[in-house]
Amino acid sequence: MAAEGDTAFVLGGGGLLGAVEVGMLRALFERGVRPDLILGTSVGALNGALVATDPTPAVIDRLVSLWESAVTSREVYGDGAVRQVRRAVRTGTHLHSTRPLRERLDQELGDLTFPELAVPFQCCAASIERAAEHWFTRGRVADAVVASAAVPGLLRPAEIDGEHYLDGGIVNSIPVGRAVECGASTVFVLQVGRVDRPLTVPRRPWEVAKVSFEIARRHRFNREMAMLPGYVTAHVLPTGGGSAKDDSLLGYRDYGSVERRIDQAYVASRAYLREHL
């Protein structure tokens, strides 16, 4: 747990859009801001776990390398349509294999456990059996990140100690409230930009599901921001760009935009920090 007065980095979920968090992190480290606690959901758990191993500017090159390899898209989601259909028919639950993500996390994190990290780190997943928000604070970090990033329909539900988990974004996409519960009084919110874009009335069945999820996640985030105690200062860092195209049905495979997202978020967050710190 963080002690009162400590600084928390909160890294939200958002698939490929999570590349913006790398630019935000670069701006924070350049400004001399260091985390005492890191909380992550889904792709934010992936980014956050790496920072927790090395909470210094040196980690940025490592993150950039990871994202330039498009681990969240080309490696994980790069298999062809025929293979996807066959897997969906065979499993009934998902389109893509979890193996590439697991292998890359094993390379990056090995067998590190939560107590071995350089800075306290927690990540969120949705427990299927308990229908509950679950926070990983012990065990093997790589396993917890896989669970936090198990996107429904795209990746297999993750199993840890006999319990099954789906993407943490289902229950807590941008966990600001968790940071306050852990005692942080300064919170830097690294979100991917969706909360800023207006929703439109859905016209197709899959759009209904997507809009419903967005309403739920934005409602929780906005409620938690509105209920922050007076002693808490929260900085919501800007992404520097983005549009409704980012939320398209196949947007999670748009790995060609990674470098642009990182650079735009860095420039925008650097300007924000100069003004507000």
Give a description of the structure:
It is a single chain. By secondary structure, the chain is of the alpha/beta class. 42% of the residues lie in helices and 15% in strands. The chain has ten helices and eight strands. Strands 1, 2, 3, 4, 5, 6, 7 and 8 form an eight-stranded mixed beta sheet that branches. The protein starts with 5 loop residues before the first strand and ends with a helix. Mean pLDDT is 86; it is low at 77-92.
Give the topology, please:
Layout: E1 6-11, H1 20-30, E2 37-41, H2 43-53, H3 59-68, H4 71-77, H5 81-91, H6 99-109, E3 121-127, E4 132-136, H7 141-148, E5 158-160, E6 163-167, H8 176-181, E7 184-190, H9 205-226, E8 233-236, H10 258-276
Parallel strand pairs: 1-2, 1-7, 2-3, 7-8
Antiparallel strand pairs: 3-4, 3-6, 5-6
Give a short overview.
The protein has 277 residues and is of the alpha/beta class.
SS elements, strand count: 8
Helical percentage: 40-55%
User: What is the CA-atom radius of gyration, in angstroms?
Assistant: 18 Å
Class by SSE composition: alpha/beta
Assembly state of the chains shown: single chain
For the largest beta-sheet, the strand count, sense and barrel status come to: 8 strands, mixed
Average pLDDT figure: 86
Q: Which percent band covers the strand fraction? A: 15-25%
Q: If helices are DSSP runs of H or I spanning 4 or more residues, what is the number of helices?
A: 10
Give the overall form: globular
